[in-house]
Amino acid sequence: MKKQLPLLVVLSTMCAMPVMATSTEQNAFFDKIAAHCGKAYEGVVTAGNSADSAFSGKKLVMHVRECSDKELKVPFHVGDDHSRTWVITKTDSGLRLKHDHRHQDGTEDKVTMYGGDTIDNGTAQLQSFPVDQFSIDNFTQNGLSQSVTNVWHVGISDTSYLYRLTRENRDFKVEFDLTKPVALPPTPWGHK
Q1: Which residues form the signal peptide (predicted)?
Q2: Got the DSSP string for the chain?
Q3: Residue 162 in contact with residue 62, Cβ under 8 Å?
Q4: pTM for the full predicted model
Q5: Residue 52 has what pLDDT?
Q6: In 10 A of CB 24, how many CB atoms?
Q7: Is residue 116 within 8 Å of 91, Cβ to Cβ?
């Protein structure tokens, strides 16, 4: 007859097990971006439509500005607009992408910290972040119902960094040349 362990022993063993963390692919992806910490790169819009006119004719610069073992902060400067920072964080179940939007005085925009979490391992070169419930609620409350099906994609290779937003009737893409660092941009709004 097989001896059964008491329930308390089984439960305490389960609680001691490590929580599922980022996958090998996600860690490699995160590390590839972190390798550029302290550098800035210029980009160009490679896909878009009339909704993306705010990016037309402006200098686009990403800056891998703040890096820790768990979080990367990558400001995205659009001309003289320093309001956007992409925040990529390791979670217990993968990676999270959030968009930190600020006003020039540093206060948060009413539509900020939106984004999503990975739902699969992705690859060392590409991760996708479907919109999360917090973001859906934020978009709906602020009259942005067209954004409730957003999926953001971030890609990195030896030569380029990709930021892409897809949803029905929208495909916006900016690609940055990682072979040519540029001068560091100003501090993004709301950051020190």
Answers
A1: 1-21
A2: -PPPPPHHHHHHHHHHSPPP---HHHHHHHHHHHTTTT-EEEEEEEE--GGGGGGTTS-EEEE--EE-SSEEEEEEEETTEEEEEEEEEEETTEEEEEEEEB-TTSPBPSS-SEEEE-SS---SSEEEEEBPHHHHHHHHHTT-GGGTT-EEEEEE-SSEEEEEEEETTEEEEEEEEEEEEEPPPPPPTT--
A3: no
A4: 0.88
A5: 85
A6: 9
A7: no
Single-letter amino acid code for the residue at 82: H
Both tokens of 119, joined, read 């739902």
- Residue 5 phi/psi, 5° resolution? -80, 145
Check whether domain 20-180 has CATH 2.60.40.420, yes or no = no
pLDDT in tens, 71-117: 999 999 999 999 999 999 999 999 999 999 999 999 999 999 999 99
